[in-house]
Design a protein that fits this description.
The complex is a heterodimer of chains A (263) and B (323). Chain A is built from seven helices and 13 strands. By secondary structure, chain A is of the alpha/beta class. Chain A has one domain: 3-Layer(aba) Sandwich (Rossmann fold). A nine-stranded mixed sheet of chain A has the order 9-8-7-10-6-1-4-5-11, sandwiched between helices. In chain A, helix 3 packs across helix 4. Chain B is of the alpha/beta class and 323 residues long. Helix content of chain B is 27%, strand content 29%. Chain B has nine helices and 18 strands. In chain B, the strands form four sheets. In chain B, strands 7-11-6-1-4-5-12 form a seven-stranded parallel sheet, sandwiched between helices. A five-stranded parallel sheet of chain B has the order 15-14-16-17-18. In chain B, 54% of the residues are buried. The chains are: A alpha/beta (263), B alpha/beta (323). Chains A and B meet through helix 3, helix 4, strand 7, strand 8 and strand 9 of A and helix 3, helix 4, strand 7, strand 9 and strand 10 of B. Strand 12 of chain A pairs antiparallel with strand 10 of chain B, so a sheet runs across the interface.
């Protein structure tokens, strides 16, 4: 099975506190640690496990610039066979539709049976997989937490729906699936693995290579635009307990007793 | 002004809470809007769901068919694309059905897509000003969305309070207008119910809930010792289950359990909306987190800025002493 996994380089929220910058118009980007979007990492692991079972290859693709190459390399160190960077100044400022348009053009340059994305990324829209599937006119399933390959060019997929229940469906290939965290246990990538792929040439394609009209992507084609970042004032917030640890604990125990939190 | 539609999610004839919240969202777009409920389903359940939403909507479009007996996003997307005017504004709850349906619907209708919207600040010509969150709620953003060619807007649960206004709409049967639906390429097989664990956190009055801040599987006993001292039970947020440190039945959140405790101790939990979505009944929330800007502090009653790995053992000791 030929599998394409769409990945994104994002600020690592387990390594950074996401805060506003001093001007208040962007997040503070100095000293940010970036890594591959957590959901995408599960998608790559799942692709590798499928190929281990049924054969084929895994290609990882991202839309970005040279800096984003590092996440492709990381996922190749994990076991993906190929990397593909989609980079062009014309891609800057793309909304979800723009990103999906770029990915669609790349998909059509290849011959993929299965396309995976993370269920969501830093922006939280959870949109690229569904848009890409609709553009390619192939079936789609979101928040997938299990995949089994069936005979006859089909998959049995589980979706994680509300209340911890799982919705099982049969889906025809080719298709697009957005992958939920917890579907597998992504393997650890050691420094040795990274070194092994450090000098692998990763091909890059721009708008012209993909046959894309620059006005359909980037900020020119965007109908959804983020104007700023801000931190809203929501209610009064919590009453913050301050003082020495002993003082805080004393106050807390009193409150817990009053609220029935200690039995 | 384009027509506004609200997609109604329902189960066994009972509409989801989102059904009345979407009306409020629609009126934020246009205070005088005529809002139409779109209800897909089959048989008596569908009829009951339509009757239940009719008071809040100007009109209810009922679409009955065997193909809609279980909500298959691929089939409903095709029906909506055939049924709706191309410049329609379509509101959808941002749940796992909305994630399945809406991005593709926006492409097929050639409409703008705004996802997981938490606020609507009004329409300015063809531009809708909306509020979203990024990075799991750590920051918010103002977003401008060009809706002049139509829009699909996914609305976060609980972001728009229901209003008392009565519209008392008629139910109109649109089942004959959905056109050719073709053959579904994704077929629903079955629902697998969540596994039942050794404890039922939905029935507990006091929960000590842990998140990423616990850092390591070995540290979970710190929370267990505190829970034991308090007479409470340990629950958790999603990353703990993803790491397989605790079973799924202990997860609080929209993709886990909905709990209604009296007291909820959120330890090292940032407070994503998916997590808070599983917390009902207005509990007394104590948040302990080393990041003073963690979103959990906005919703907690009491906050403590501390590393839970240091703080929880001290708290356990003091509770034991006080007994």
């Amino acid at each position: 099975m030929e599998i394409l996994v769409c990945v994104k380089r994002v600020p690592d929220t387990s390594e950074n506190e996401i805060e506003l910058n001093r001007e208040g118009n962007d997040i503070e980007r100095d000293d940010l640690v970036y890594s591959v979007n957590e959901w995408d990492n599960y998608a790559v692991e799942e692709a590798i496990q499928i190929v281990d079972k049924v054969g084929g290859s895994v290609t990882v693709v991202t839309v970005g610039d040279e800096e984003d190459e590092e996440v492709l390399r990381r996922e190749m160190a994990m076991g993906a066979n190929n990397g593909l960077l989609l980079a062009d100044d014309a891609f800057q400022g793309s909304d979800g539709r723009g990103i999906a348009t770029i990915l669609k053009a790349a998909v059509e340059k290849g011959n993929y049976d299965l396309i995976l994305t993370g269920a969501l990324a830093d922006g939280g829209e959870a949109q690229i997989g569904g848009m890409l599937a609709a553009m390619l006119d192939v079936p789609f399933a979101s928040v997938v937490n299990s995949i089994a390959v069936l005979d006859g060019n089909k998959l049995k997929v589980g979706r994680e729906i509300e209340g911890g229940n799982q919705e099982m469906s049969e889906i025809e290939l080719p298709c697009v699936l957005s992958i939920q965290t917890g579907i597998n246990e992504p393997r650890y990538v050691g420094i040795r693995g990274i070194r092994k792929v450090a000098s692998v040439e990763i091909p890059s394609m721009g708008a012209a290579d993909l046959g894309l009209d620059a006005s359909a992507v980037g900020s020119a084609g965007a109908r959804v635009r983020r104007m700023d970042y801000f931190v809203p004032e929501i209610g009064d917030g919590a009453e913050m307990l301050e003082g020495s640890t002993d003082e805080i604990i004393e106050k807390l125990i009193e409150m817990l007793k009053a609220k029935g939190g200690l039995k | 002004m384009a027509q506004i539609f609200a997609t109604i999610v329902h189960k066994a004839g009972v509409p989801d809470d989102s059904a009345v919240e979407l009306v409020t969202a629609a009126r934020k777009i246009d205070a005088g809007a005529t809002v139409t409920a779109l209800v897909f389903g089959s048989g008596d359940d569908l009829a009951a769901a339509c009757t239940a939403v009719a008071p809040a909507y100007n009109e209810v479009w009922k679409v009955d068919g065997d193909a809609f007996a279980y909500p298959n996003a691929e089939v409903i997307r095709k029906a909506m694309t055939n049924l709706l005017p191309s410049d329609a504004i379509v509101l959808v709850p941002h749940d796992t059905f909305g994630m399945d349906l809406s991005p593709g619907l926006a492409i097929k209708m050639d409409s703008a897509f705004a996802s997981d919207v938490v606020g609507i600040e009004g329409l300015d010509g063809g531009t809708l000003n909306i509020v979203r969150q990024e990075f799991g709620g750590a920051v918010s953003t103002h977003v401008q969305c060009d809706i002049s060619q139509g829009a699909v807007i996914n609305v976060r649960a609980g972001s728009f309070a229901p209003e008392e206004t009565q519209a008392n709409g008629q139910v109109v049967d649109k089942s004959g207008d959905v056109g050719d639906l073709g053959a579904a390429r994704r077929k629903f097989l079955e629902l697998v119910a969540a596994e039942v664990g050794d404890v039922d956190i939905t029935k507990e009055e006091v929960l000590v809930s842990i998140g990423r801040g616990i850092e390591d599987e070995d540290n979970i006993e710190i929370a267990q010792e505190l829970a034991e001292a308090m007479g409470a039970v340990v629950s958790c947020s999603r990353p703990i289950v993803d790491a397989k440190w605790l079973e799924k039945s202990r997860q609080v959140g929209t993709s886990g359990q909905t709990v209604k405790p009296k007291v909820y101790l959120a330890c090292g939990i940032s407070g994503s909306f998916q997590h808070l979505g599983g917390l009902k009944g207005n509990p007394f929330i104590v948040a302990i987190n080393k990041n003073p800007k963690a979103p959990i502090f906005q919703v907690a009653d009491v906050g403590i800025v501390a590393d839970i790995l240091d703080f929880l053992p001290d708290l356990t000791e003091k509770i034991q002493e006080s007994k």
